[in-house]
Amino acid sequence: MDEESQRRVTPVILSGGAGTRLWPLSRLDRLKPMVDLTGEGTLLELTARRVANRERYAAPLLVTGAEDAEAGAAQLAAAGTAPQRTIVEPAARGTAAAIALAALALEPATPMLVMPSDHVIADETAFEAAVAIALSAAEDGWLVTFGITPDRPETGYGYIRRGAPIGGGAHRAERFAEKPDSATATAWLAEGGYDWNAGIFLMRAGDYLEALAATAPALLDAARAGAAGDPAAFAAAPSASVDRAVMEQWDRVAVVPVAMGWSDVGSWEAVHALGPHDAHGNAVAGDAVAVDSRGCLVRSDGPVVVALGVEDLVIVATERAVLVVPRGSSQRVGEAIEAIGKRREGDAKDG
Questions:
Q1: If you ran DSSP here, which 8-state letter would residue 238 be given?
Q2: What was the pLDDT predicted at 4?
Q3: What does the alpha-carbon distance between residue 145 and residue 142 come to, in Å, rounded to a whole number?
Q4: Is 252 exposed, middle or buried (0-12, 13-18, 19+ CB in 10 A)?
Q5: What is the pTM of this model?
Q6: pLDDT for 143-180, tens place per residue?
Q7: Which among 274, 284, 326, 330 has a CA at the least distance from the CA of 307?
Q8: Helix, strand, or coil here: 301?
Q9: Which of 54, 72, 154, 300 has the fewest CB atoms within 10 Å, i.e. the most exposed one?
Q10: d(CA 171, CA 41)
Q11: How far does CA 206 lie from the centroid of its chain?
């Protein structure tokens, strides 16, 4: 392999997660990455297009569950970035094991860009600049994570505390912090030096496997067994995030701070923030209309929906369900799913 092809980054796209906070649009039989929330393609398609430049990126690896493998590969192909390989997880065991399956499929020197498939990045120029910085650090043996420059005291994300610079715009990751309370998040924002943990990583495959062997050897053994065709051994592995299993324990972890218009689109409020908005702050999509209404998200993939004379509501309709919730309270969507489940259990008992 020549030097130029060695520097070409292999994207590893992690596709999974029901995204139940975006119910009823996202559900168990239509996962969040497979949903078009921006009007420009599904989140998975947007992720694939982000790494479509073959001068810089190799064809991606798609890591997903068996039930979504065919649909996921088809979406990547539709986006013009057909995967070089689809890796099917024998069972869901968290991001540490999923990344290990990808790393085992690559040559040790291959730099891999690990990306969740359900994020939005508005500033792709900034993204490319961060990739270049991260690649330089990864080629020096660092496991690199992308830290999103915070613009508000967000309590819904984990944080990374920046340490000493290691050169080229990257810093040693001093520590990873769990989701803070409001007062802590406000203090961190005022202090500076803290970035949101986006769950995007760039590292060489061999460096990741070396770190995993040291920090979670049982998990690596299970991944090797799964890659060799033993799904039961993989399913018996402990479930762990890559942050917990590796990044919080390894001594060569770097962070690249970047402001790139990032969103994990984890709530209906986040979808509303993506816009576009009309003159009254409404975000309207599908067969829907907002009349004399302000600050609403109105979306229909099913019947015609009219929001008339209301403010700050989330109204989402599909062919199967309708959600109406005050904007700012959509994190309670889980209560709706739970209530529906209990009702169905009751109906089954009555039947």
A1: P
A2: 43
A3: 9
A4: middle
A5: 0.90
A6: 999 999 999 999 889 999 999 999 999 999 999 999 99
A7: 284
A8: strand
A9: 54
A10: 34
A11: 23
Residue 114 near residue 102 (C-beta atoms within 8 A):
yes
Rounded-to-integer distance, Cα 229 and Cα 158, Å: 35
Q: What is the pLDDT of residues 77-107, one digit of tens each?
A: 988 889 999 999 999 999 999 999 999 999 9
Tokens encoding 165: 């610079």
**Is residue 276 reached through a cis peptide bond, with omega within 30 degrees of 0 on the bond before it?**
yes
User: Among 212, 216, 204, which Cα is nearest to 141's?
Assistant: 204
Half-sphere exposure of 295 (CA within 13 A, CB side): 9
| Rounded-to-10 torsion of CA 189, 190, 192, 194 | -20
**In which band, very low, low, confident or very high, does the pLDDT at 351 lie, cut at 50, 70 and 90?**
low
Of the candidates 80, 77, 79, 4, which has an alpha carbon nearest to the alpha carbon of residue 36?
Answer: 79
The 10 Å Cβ neighbour count of residue 171 is: 21
Specify the domain boundaries for CATH 3.90.550.10 within the chain: 3-263
pLDDT at 36 over 60: yes
Q: Give the per-residue pLDDT at 347.
A: 64
- Pick from 129, 116, 113: nearest CA to 157: 116
Q: Which CATH superfamily is domain 3-263 in?
A: Spore Coat Polysaccharide Biosynthesis Protein SpsA; Chain A (3.90.550.10)
Distance CA 171, CA 162 (A): 6
